Fold each of these.
Amino acid sequence: MNILKKIKTFILTPNYSFRNVLFALILGFGIAYATLLAMYGTADANFLVQHLFKQDFLDMHTSTLLIRKITILAMAGLAVAFGMKAGILNIGVSGQMTAGGIVGYIIIQYSGWMRLEKNNNWVLAIMFFVVVGTSMVVALLTGILKSYLKVNEVISTIMINWIIVYIAKRFTTNESKDAIEMGKGAKGFDTTRFVHGNDWLITGICIGVSILFIIIAWFYLSQTKFGFKIIATGMNKDAAHYAGYNSKLLTLNAFVISGALAGVAGYLFFFLSDNSIPAFEVPLAEGFTGIAVALVAMLNPWLIIPSSILFGLLEGPIGSIDAAGFPPSVIQVFSGVITYFVAISSIFLYLRPFLFIKDSWARYALNHKGGAK
Amino acid sequence: MFTTILGGIFVLTAVYALAATSGLFAERSGTINLAINGGMIMGAAGYMLLSYMLVQQMGGMRWWIPIVSIANSILFSVAITTLLAIGTINFRGDHIIVGTAINILAPIISTVILVIVSHGQQLIPTLKYSMITTFPTYSKITAWEIQMIIFFIVAFIILALYLLMRKTVFGLRLRAAGENPHALAAAGVSVFKIRHLAMLISGTLSGLAGGIVVSGFLKFSAYGSSVYGMGFVALAILILGQWRMPWLILGALAFSVVYILTYSYAQKLVENQWLIYVVPYVTILISLPMLSATSNAPKAAGQPYINTGR
């Protein structure tokens, strides 16, 4: 009885942001499905939707790839969520990821570690610090621009994203004489080159790393004084300033930590997943999906896990949908529409289905059975 | 060679001026339009969609097809900008977040449209459908002259918009909606209506910019649901221009000169050409902090107008 009452309050009271996000998910999914229906007809639309949720789990290799993609999205989402907690929107996640990955590749290229034999786990360990460090430096630049030079972080991060895209392109196109070797065949970095183990070991590392950082982010935000200060700055910068916090330094701090988390995402993307190196025509899509992941998770580090699983499922099967004869981008309709509705999920404050039914019933009763006139 | 550079500067100035003015109209009315890039992408998609279909239908290119397609690009862009307007003005969503969501949504919609219409092609060659290749086949006019004509038409449009903003009642109300919406409401004008009209103008302009990008600009040999971040650059130009239209046009001109010169220089290089492309973005990044101290942003930009306070 108690649980029923709780559920009833949950649906009726629009003050829960989770309720709004839930409605946004349902509506987004429905509209995306309707789009597919309009485009392809019932049979094909149903096929595509079924494909989302039973995508090749039987195949070991593809399911590990899916799990790795989910961990990348989780880290990107965590980076965005951490920034949003401090009142900054870190659109630069994709640039920070790319910067770390490319610097790591360049170091491997010029240090001759490419010619190392198998079982050299230490290279990957060093690369972790290189990638995260580079991403932190890029984020530090944005943070200085934001907090000391008053440049809006949205503009500066987008500019830095494009700068990094072109630098990355210079080091990966075949036209360059000193292009990165892995870039030449447009083939991904061979993770088995350094790790002694199979797909599942690498996937296990990915899961372990992402859960470790989720715990760290949660602990930092909710259990420490610094975390409290950061959240206070995000809620009201002026109030935090009057309370004696150095809000500029805190914003910078939050940006660097967000960049570090983006660096973890970049490490997972460039060194521990089997992706081919992207063509670098536009900034990495993972960074932007991270915004959606963070919004669905309502900026809670723990809810990042289900949220990233959702978006991983929605964006995972791009490769296999191609094999089924559909254009691969069709499936992205789901994540795009859902992102829009989650972004405006506050509109569902106005959505009160039970109140609406009750009101309509009362009006109906009034008109048909007499009553107060 | 010289005429190519000159034509490029003409058309790129037109594009950036239109896109930045689109942002100006939105922000002056109190809505931060981060979705200029999304609007441009949709405009480009609308242009490609209609011209592709008409060419298929007519069995070849006709002289009127680019003109009709530009109108369609406005339609597409207005559709997606209306999503932003409803989300922010009526439902009080966070302007930056909703704008980012639109920027994620627009390339996906555009890709889906292109894929379905063109049967699986994700890249459509633009030069076959653009103005600069169509019109020269019907008259003696050359490509760079068309780009110049585009520039002057756009200059005329922007002059008209400047007069609209500065010399009419509507312009005054629009600026008031961005500075002090409550005062405007007290004067008996609907803030929602003004803001929606401003977003309509904003969407029209960004759609026009997107249409011109794919139809008048030689760099775009193929359209694949991306305008290379031009909308964001326009937003930066808007900030550099301090929300003043003359400065904004000057910024657009300066930036397109820098862009075209670096681009034509980079074409000669083989290895480091991608590093040269960085120059325009670095220029913006360096010049932003210099002007940020004296920010003249509209005071109510990004804040939802809530009607119940009175």
Amino acid sequence: MADNSRVKACGTGYDPVMLALHGFDAYGLEISSTAVSVAREYAKAQMEKPDIHHWASAESGKTHQPAGKITFIKGDFFDRAWEADLPLESGGFDLVYDYTVSTNTIFDDWQVGLMRDSFYVLYHQTCGSHGRTEWGTWSNQEGF
Amino acid sequence: MTYRRALCQVHGQSDNTRAQTVGPSAERLRRALILIESHEFHNIYLRLQATDITRRLLTIVHSLLNLILDSQDAGAGVTRERASHLPFRVFVSLSTRIPNTTFVANGRRSTEQKAGSGWSDLWDSGEADLWDRGFPSPPLIDFLEGSQKLLKPVDANGQPKKAFVPVRPTC
């Protein structure tokens, strides 16, 4: 077991916690059980007393949404067994943030079915006044 | 600009370099470097993630280092010798540091599994903080807070939407 005092939350922890603090129910998938343990500790502390770095500015931190829930799942992205632990029966995810796993081939047959290419955020958005929803993607490559 | 915010912004850009490393990217890296330079960063953490370890990637890293050094020479009056001692770090792909991982042209699946095991080993040995950026992704925060009309965290019934963040080393 790692000496957790040397290891911070690392990849799994920061972004799901930030998303939960912005009002989403956030799910993090991580292959390392040690990382999951550390992330859970980090999440517990941050949900009680979050750092300001979860918001773009001190001002936006003051007006944030009620926090959502946060769940960490141990699993290998390439082994679909972890899908059983996900809330897919209720419509799947509304937003996916990825910076490590996406490639063209991986997402071809993944459950969302609309993921292609490498990107950072895939999100479910409501369009127009009829409540129609569609997937949008966002990457800040443009202007890079 | 404070040191901390500068570091955040470098990380924000470094997240993006993953996409650039799989295509012709010298120009984009040059533009990134101009951005880095314009903010007078004191410390550069540039993490390059790639889906493959190729000569092309190594060439890009080499070019990037030269660009940093050249611009230091030209812009800040820093000599190449001094610049080489500046406290910047270039994190080449995660998978290059994973023990006992081999890279093969085919057999992707087995390579991925080795990388996953290596990633866990790093965590268990306390070395995973090499890739610890220390805070949430600044561009993701900017995106969420800048898109609130389009992207509300609750649905029409007021229930929280679900967000997913998979983390996995890639080869």
Amino acid sequence: MSVSKKTRKGYMINEEQLLSGLKDESTKKDAFRMLVTTYKQRLYWHIRKIVLNHDDADDILQNTFVKVWRNIDSFRSESGLYTWLYRIATNESLTFLNQKKKKMFGMDEEINDYLVENIQSDPYFNGDDIQRKLQEAIARLPEKQRIVFNMRYYDDIKYQDMEKILETSAGALKASFHHAVKKIEDYLKSTD
Amino acid sequence: MTDNSKYSRENPFDVPEGYFDTMEDRIEERIRAEENEGAPGQKFIRIIKPILGLAASFALAFLLIDYPITKILSKYTGRTIDQTGEGTKLNEELLTGYRYLDENTFFLALTSKEETADFESDEILSFLTSELDDYEVYAEIIN
């Protein structure tokens, strides 16, 4: 996600407009449609990088927006619409992976293998071998490190925003990112 | 990472063609479907439907299994269904009678000594022989 000052300022304006539209029953439907249009791609890619499968990402994205629609009246503006949406999307994705994990008898290694298999069999993977190897290295990371790495490396989300989305301190997030980078480097070196 | 130029930050994943174009419509459709599904009348029907189904299957099972079995068994035991019903009725009456005793009456009945009458041996003999004719009395004495 590009979070340059200009773009972020743009989001803020849109958020205010969207929120006032969502709170008014007469404009709620149109505002919600606008919200979906504004955030669908960013949320989709955030979810897709967690579950690494298009169909699963599509289901989770729809669940996310349905949840947003149901709970928009109880949303308190101080937490920020964009962080709230990301938090719902992240929670929905993690719930999905936990359900998968339960079916696999709760083994973390097995869920990582499942994610690697998703990359290898993904019909919508357009990267080269180097990118595939990088994605496999990311898929082998522990859950939290994987999410932090993707949000920072690909989406360029600031730690202060990540703090609100993942409800973790900036220090812990930086440590997670550092560990993730180290593990990816080790994996890439070992497979060279 | 060690060699950043080698590992680009470009997204290597893709989506089916036109996937994002119809997103709004699909989400609206789903919300509409869920809201219709959750309408009060339909929700009640949805809850009550399996219960009614279960009740109907129990009734059917009773008719198909219990009734013929009772009918067949009654033939072998020589008792009609009505007679069986009477037996049940009698049991119920006995139980109900017992139930209507209050605690004190019940306790009194348990602790009170039964009144026993003292009978003379002649009286006992006359009672025992009351239904016998003279010949039978004579035979009993001889034996």
